[in-house]
Amino acid sequence: MKVLLIGNYVPDGQTSMLAFSRILERELPRLGCELRVISPPKRLLLVPSSSRLWKWLGYLDKFVLFLPSLAQDLKWADVVHIADHSNGMYVPRVRSKPNVITCHDVIAVQASLGMIDGWKVGWTGRLFQRLICKGLGAADLVACVSHLTRRELLKLRIAPESRVITVMNGLNDDFHPVEPAEAQRLLERFGAPVRGKYLMHVGWDLDRKNRRNVLAAFIALQQRAAETGVPAPVDRLLFVGPELVPEMAETAARHGVADRITTVQRVSHEELRALYSSATALLFPSLQEGFGWPVIEAQACGCPVFTSNVAPMNEIGGPGAEYVDPTDPVAIAERIEASASRLGEMRRLGLENAAQYTSNQMASNYVDTYRRVIEQRKALA
Prior knowledge:
alpha/beta, Rossmann fold, 2 domains, about 45% helix, globular
């Protein structure tokens, strides 16, 4: 089976989407597929990202200059897989071949329809999302990465139910527990913040990632410890992501915890595994996700997980995760305290849960979808 995999434009910096493509690039050949991976090359985008032309030159690279080479590679393929729904505009260009497109979430679509408070989308963004939806609706098969994403996509009536399935994500790399001595060696450059009992969060500074309530829950833990005289389960907070915005930094200083909070960037995969393995727990109270990779990444490294009691987090975290109200930082702090005695059990159950989400299983499920669309095309011929 000749599979043409269309990946993302690298300058867009969509780390998780690039990781998703890497899984398939690694696993599909092991399953007997002949694979060709293509993505729009950087040609016109020769200006800094701060330039007003940056977005438009990128569009020309992706949706104009890339099309001739896409047409040539299309002749070779038995089936086409568009790895990211944000490239739904390619669907009309590949309709001559059986095709699959992966939908990771519909959050941007919902925002373009005014369904997400505080997220304003300009006219170009709304047009872009309409084109994406048109592509999803025209695909032979839309593969959603979680049951939630499938439900939300169907609710928006973007594609008919008969052509929308769920292919659960797998771990996007090799995540496993790191022995303490090796972890400390890998984490030396971070210094003291990773030598104590620390709570960690992974994610960007987007409202839906809820970093402010991560900070508020940590402050609540320290205040409760001061009031009761009982040490908190964690005495440090580590953000894997951007520096704190001024508002958060001021809040930390006002509550006297600024010296216990660290942010780290440019973390390698090996370092991320070590951070998960050394943490007391991951707090991931996201308000909205398509899948929620950090939940199973942490579990695969033996890190207990506290996450939102909303889908898809409470659908993928299994019995090893503790589920919290992401809008109530005091309740989050109380749940972390109450769970301190079962962290070992959470580690064990989390490892068992994460073992279900293998990259090989995900790729195998995609091979099944390729066969399905190929057979469907044959039946129509």
